[in-house]
Design a protein that fits this description.
Distance between the termini: 40 Å
CATH superfamily: NAD(P)-binding Rossmann-like Domain
CATH topology: Rossmann fold
Number of domains: 1
Largest sheet: 7 strands, parallel
Structural class: alpha/beta
Strand order of the largest sheet: 3-2-1-4-5-7-12
Helix content: 25-40%
CATH architecture: 3-Layer(aba) Sandwich
Mean pLDDT: 93
Radius of gyration: 20 Å
Shape: globular
Order of helices and strands: EHEHEHEHEEHEEEEEHEHEHHEHH
Number of helices: 11
Oligomer: single chain
Number of strands: 14
Amino acid sequence: MTVHLVTGSNGFLGPVVVDRLLARGSSEVRCLVLAGTSRGRLDEVAARHPGANLRVVEGSLASQESCAKLLVGVDVIVHLAAAMKGTPEQIFGSTVVATQNLLEAIRHLPPTKEGGAPRPRIVHCSSFSVYGVADLPKGALIDETSPLEPHPDRRDLYAQAKLKQERLIHAYATQHGLQATIARPGVIYGPGGPAMSSRVGLFARGLFVQLGGKNLLPLSYVENCADALAVMAERARFACDVYNVHDDELLSCDAYLERFERDVTNLHAVRLPFFATKAVAGAMSTLRSWSKGRFPAPLSPYAVDTTWKRHRFSNARLHALGWSPRISTEEGLVRTFAWLREQEWRGERA
């Protein structure tokens, strides 16, 4: 029987991962939560699995010592904890430093059986943002062999932090024998999650600037993504093997926005074609450089090439592991947009 520890367990994805681990027969799931944060969704999961061994543990990944206390008896860690936004210190502290503390705690676990007990294995949730695809040709296929970002300094802080996380995983695997597998989800969506991916566009002064056009949106419905992580926890090789996580039926950004405006609300969208987007991004970067960083530049030419060059995506390796999406894209959109209507979503505040 397997004991799982889930970090970031009360975020958007975490409770769904806990639910899927229990549904697949986990003997115990420990849910790490920060003191003072909501446990409501975890309580809902517990109610759906009466009699299951679900333990909510207050703690943090702020030190090696705090991590070590969480690991006693754990077989597999599903590592979701990361900061999506905040100051550089907050993003790197909650993402990179926390991950290193966890890896150090695993490395220093004492053996508990004759010959030494295996250390906990780790399923690490990374991101498509680690790929360095700006220089690939238009329409290139992005799979697990695609290059990692060679110019992190040209990317946002989140992408930089996720790339550093992966490099830590590889370093500990190489130097200390850590057993790890890496999931790279695309755009995770669903009830309770973000309404709009920046791949589709950005809000600006009451308008929605549509940037994605005909580019495919690598959607991963939250339940399908959680299923992928649970399958990886059971079947992955734990040899730093990597799996792209996205659904089979991918919409273009245009199609997603059209459905959103039909089923949720009109965004007063203004479309910016690729050449214009790149020109605006170039002007923003010039102004930012001229102002010595005082002028905000949400777009750069490099980011435009990274995101909107009509790339294609492959999840064949994940299928080969035995995963398939339980929820169709159509059903995922229906559920997500119904939830947004219930929330009376009206703009970027959501």
